[in-house]
Amino acid sequence: MKLIHSNTPPVLLPPRALVPLIVLGAFALAVMLSACAAPRADIEQLALAEAAMARAETSSTAADAPKELQLARGKLAQARQAMSARDYAIATPLAEEAVLDAQVAEAQARRVRAVRAARESAKAAADMQEELNRKTTR
Description:
Layout: E1 2-4, E2 11-13, H1 19-35, H2 39-56, H3 59-64, H4 66-84, H5 88-136
Antiparallel strand pairs: 1-2
């Protein structure tokens, strides 16, 4: 665990290896709780999935995380079909997965953009250094 130092009391953060387990545990809990929920909760979960997809459906996400976005679209389509068939036990978990997949797509797109920006910054710094070296050797 890492200790963050600041003026606030110390906060312990879980190591990166535990994050997927925490997410998986939260997802499993949500699935178990949704199995007992009424159809209204299922409709609300589908609405959440629709909103998450609307947020993720940007041109940059489509360009930078197409596979992840397609996975989310597929799960949302399956959730809609299951909801139409009144198969709420299938629809709700699929809608929850669609939300998570849409969030993964957004995160992946942000990561790709950050890597691209870092590469561009490194190239600009190298170009500047090269120009400085040329000017000092004259």
